[in-house]
Amino acid sequence: MTPQTFSSALSAIRHAGSVYGLILTRGHDLIFQDTPFPVERVAELAATLDDIVYYFEQEKRCPDQLVFGYDGGHLLILLLGEFRMVVFHHRADEVDFVARASRAFLKDHAMDLLAHEWTAGQAPAAVL
Fold this sequence. Notes:
Elements: H1 3-14, E1 19-26, E2 29-34, H2 39-58, E3 65-70, E4 73-80, E5 83-89, H3 95-119
Antiparallel strand pairs: 1-2, 1-5, 3-4, 4-5
Helix pairs in contact: 1-3
């Protein structure tokens, strides 16, 4: 996936429906951030995601999607291996649409990285 394709795909998600923010992390690394929040708040959210994932791992549970509602919007969290995507959106009725588009991007991105690692002769990272 070229940087242009990567940016275009995330931009399409960012502008779908009532989406008003998007964060993509891989482990502790922030890969992409387009939110109306300061960098410190985004870093705090990324750390909280680590805590959430750790909690579920300790409980021997492996969710792939979490949705939270709050005053003023909704938070969709998608988990795929070490990737975490957070999508902020306003309308509750569009969560399935936003989740499908976001999950398709995550799977494409993870498979692209796996293919690049394989062709480069590296041991594949645990992406899926």
